[in-house]
Amino acid sequence: MTRPQGYRDYHTMTRWVSYLLYLYLLATLLVLISSVLDYRLLTDLQHGVYLAAESVDSDVQSSQLRLIGALLFSLATAVVAGTGVLLWTYRAVYNAHQLGSKGLQFSPGWAVASYFIPGLNLWKPFQVMKELWQTSLSTASGWSRIRVPGLMRLWWGLWLVVLSLGRVTELLTNRVEQLLALRELAVLYGINALLSLPLTLLLLYLIRTIQRRQQAQHQTQQQTKPDDSSASTLSRATPPELAAQ
Prior knowledge:
By secondary structure, this protein is mainly alpha-helical. The chain has helices spanning 11-46, 53-98, 108-113, 124-137, 150-172, 179-224, 228-237, 240-244.
């Protein structure tokens, strides 16, 4: 059985995805704080501030556990929020088609899949968001000529930097037995978290703005749409003899 076509309201979905992103912001902030504390502790240790070995072992273990806990919480919220963003993307692209935008490059399924294809995921998801932004402003034939704001380019640039830092962090974990490597990891985790804060805020702005504009487009189309039900009712109410005249 085929599902009915037509615009599907996703205001509630957008709101819940926003909540998940706010939760990820909290987790990212915890990672940032834990990274700074861990870096300070390791720096003090390197400079010989600690004299008692018992105190060193206890404090280092507590610091590492705090950082690991924050990272795991951040990872869990990133997975949940990321899933929400993918569902939102599917619905937003679907609605872009239903609102009448012609010449769209991405189907809903292809828009989601673009995040997982190696190589293509370095620019295709940006193009998906770009199309959503442009068509949320106009569904006319010239929508592709609408310029996107610099904030969108900043969002994607931050995403590529954060992605690259994640790869460097994975390589550095092979040397975590060294004190210097632990400090470097703390720095990388901190920078990654620091950049993830504006990255997430920009994503929040984009998804909420696109949803709001698509909803406004749908309402406008509904208001200007001919009332077919009234026309059919009038036709049924007209006697056959008057219709024949």
